[in-house]
Amino acid sequence: MDGNWQEVMKAAISEVLETMYFTDVVFQQKAPSEAFRGWQAAIEMHASDTAAVVGLSLGFEDSFARELAANMLGLDPDGMPDEDVRDALQELANMVAGNCVVLLGPEKWRLGLPRAHSGLVAPPAATHGVGMSAAGHFVGWAWCRRE
Amino acid sequence: MAYNVMIIDDSKSMRHVIKKVLKISGLEIGEIIEAGNGQEALDQLQDHWVDLILSDIHMPVMDGLEFLRRLGTHADLNDVPVVLVTTERNEKRLAEAMALGARAYLSKPFQPEEFRSLVFKLLGVEHGWELAGSDEGCDF
Fold first, then answer.
1. At what angle do helices A82-104 and A62-73 cross, to 10 degrees?
2. The CATH number of the domain covering residues in A3-146
3. Residue B28: its pLDDT value, please?
4. Number of domains in chain B
5. Mind listing the pLDDT tens digit for each residue in A67-102?
6. Which residues of chain B fall below pLDDT 70?
7. Please, are residues B37 and B60 in contact by the beta-carbon 8 Å criterion?
8. Is B58 an 8 Å CB contact of chain A?
9. Beta carbons within 10 angstroms of residue A117's beta carbon
10. Are residues B56 and A98 in contact, defined by beta-carbon separation less than 8 angstroms?
11. Which keywords does the record carry (chain A) (predicted)?
């Protein structure tokens, strides 16, 4: 994906995290390249006039994912059910993709349904993704990829 | 007057956020009824009267547009104002939703004040007091 997609993705992530999850992240082109245990949320954006499909994925370390869910819901992250974390991250992917579509042209793209799961989060290819850190610590990756 | 509100969204988190924003809005809230999709909402509306419906568009089973179509076929329900709370930004689809009877839409993510301002205006409520005799148009 070209640089424009990446900039659009970063802008969308920042706005959604600030507005609904009361947090912000710093993006970094160089990020740890090892897989980690955490959460991955994904959604597809379908081009309206071609068969093009772009997948957006967000991968977060478990503790940060729980913090995001807790912030959104106004709850304590400790003891938060996995189902609540999964749902909060699905909605995050949904809103980030929605914002991407606004920036890219809402007439040209439509959203699929988001999904999220816990497990091993593998690093994206260097050209597709960016790392994210919060309070000076690496917390995850974000990437867009043409499917 | 306490308002009964229905929230329709397949995301439990988003329903929770909307509930929270409703409760802090200053609007007197009666009952909040939740549904995960349009079909569940129609089923719930058989047994619950609501004054306002807040609905997502993109949902499995029955999406928001189909919900609006079906709602419009119920004579006793088609005056209930529906506000779409959605990530949809395609103007044609939003126009279709308005033509199907939605009164307004609010884009996710949203600030609580945007939400409050829209809902209060739609219901003809100002600062917790109903606007007496207001027939102000509420189409956005």
1. 80
2. 3.40.1550.10
3. 93
4. 1
5. 999 999 999 999 999 999 999 999 999 999 999 998
6. 127-140
7. yes
8. yes
9. 13
10. no
11. Chemotaxis
Domain region containing B77: 10-48+62-81+112-118
Q: Is the model's pLDDT at A135 over the cut of 60?
A: yes
On whether the pTM is more than 0.90, the answer is: no
A22 touches chain B (CB under 8 A): no
CB spacing of A20 vs B89 below 8 angstroms: no
Confidence (pLDDT) at B127: 59
Q: Which residues 6+ apart lie within 8 Å of A137 measured at CB?
A: none
What is the rounded distance in angstroms from the CA atom of residue A120 to the CA atom of residue A105? 33
Contact call for residues A111 and B58 (beta carbons, < 8 A): yes
Question: DSSP letters of B44-97?
Answer: HHTT---SEEEE-S--SSS-HHHHHHHHTT-TTTTTS-EEEEES---HHHHHHH
Higher pLDDT, A123 or B39: B39
Burial track B75-90 (b if 16+ CB lie within 10 A, e otherwise): eebeebbbbbbbbbbb
The residues facing A47 across adjacent strands are A109
pLDDT at A117: 97
Residue B99, in any domain of the structure: no
